[in-house]
Design brief:
mainly beta, disordered N terminus
């Protein structure tokens, strides 16, 4: 198995730290599996823990993914991953700069509503590194750690869910998954 770390744009470092570990299974025995070239993801696990100082919640999401040609991930040390459409453009934001899209919804008035962070332009988008150097089917687990959801952002016992999708380098968007519900700022 191989491990990879998710990269974070510098502007999010103070508010949002991401790590990912990808357990990659390149299937070579008994022929290659046939997966769609469009990534497919499945929700597997959500862990919520209060920080040591009990002033924020730490969230970890584990997904299982499959991709038919293995073109998942973007790396800053690969020149083509810094060119359009993956380049960072601070004037005209580029939606493909990141490849991991996490959205937080909180329960209000009988349904889940998108949560608007009180920090301008803050979102839960990020990058995970290339998962394979070969053009072949891959499957494995990706764990995403999003620490520090400050309790000041949420009323006590706020019920929430995440939705999540990824893009591959061919700009194919995966299906969107929803996590199980969880509580932020548990009292």
């Amino acid at each position: 198995m191989t491990s990879f770390k998710m990269l974070v744009p510098n502007k999010f470092i103070l508010f949002f730290v991401m790590n990912s570990i990808f357990s990659l299974a390149l299937l070579s025995c008994g022929g290659k599996p046939e997966f769609s070239k469009k990534p497919t993801i499945e929700f597997r696990e959500l862990l919520i823990n209060p920080s040591i100082d009990n002033r924020s919640d730490l969230c970890s999401i584990k997904i299982f993914l499959k991709d038919g040609d293995g073109d998942l991930g973007l790396s800053l040390d690969v020149p083509s991953d810094k060119l359009p459409p993956f380049n960072l453009d601070t004037i005209n934001p580029n939606k493909y700069y990141n490849n991991y899209f996490l959205n937080l919804y909180t329960w209000k008035s009988g349904s889940y509503k998108p949560f608007v962070f009180p920090v301008p332009n803050f979102n839960l988008e990020g990058r995970f590194s290339r998962l394979s150097t070969k053009s072949s089917p891959i499957e494995g687990f990706l764990s995403f750690v999003a620490p520090a959801f400050p309790h000041d952002f949420f009323a006590p016992n706020t019920q929430a869910i995440f939705t999540l999708f990824v893009y591959d380098r061919a700009l194919n968007q995966s299906n969107t998954i929803t996590t199980t519900s969880f509580i932020l700022n548990k009292k």
